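Sequence and structure are kept together here, with a separate record for every protein. A complete record is shown below as an example:
=====
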Amino acid sequence: MLAGSAQAETTVNLSYNGAPDPDKNAVHVFATNLKDLVAEKTNGEIQLKLYPNSMLGEEQARMEQVMSTPSLNIASFAGMSPLVPEIYVSAIPFLFEDFEAARNFFDEGQYWQEVENALRERTGAELLAVVEEGGFLAFTNNEKPIHSPKDFEGLRFRAMDPSQVALYEAFGASGTPIPWTEVYMALRTGVADGQMN
């Protein structure tokens, strides 16, 4: 190899939910920053190509791509749960008292290390990080404020999967599995009263 010759560039796909709009999608802001960091830290040898809005498929399809090709996916718990159902222990509402407790749980906790190990053993995929994209779970709806589990009574929520349906039912609400790309229409047409982020 001659000094000064062009370096080979590798492109890696990075897929995620939501629009490529930094004002409306914290995941897009994260993906854009990650793309810039990877290019900077590898001197341009690795480039991330962003695929927002589920362009490479819904959650399950994107997780399959991660397991079979060199790619990255910003997965929700719904995307990971078919592979590591234990992940839902950490998605129980009202579980953490504050940000410090949540960060300790995800960054240093033994439970989360076990989730990472289970994913690796079952799929060969690596869980690189838990990304906090805006804070604790927020339940929104067009009927009433939610401060505790009793406030869910009688509401209809968009659910990511059957485990969320069970969660809502345990709180006295109902849940309907709706893909993220259809959430706004479901809320507009009354198929669901609310959703969580």
About this structure: The first strand starts at residue 10 and ends at 15. The radius of gyration is 19 Å. The mean pLDDT is 88.
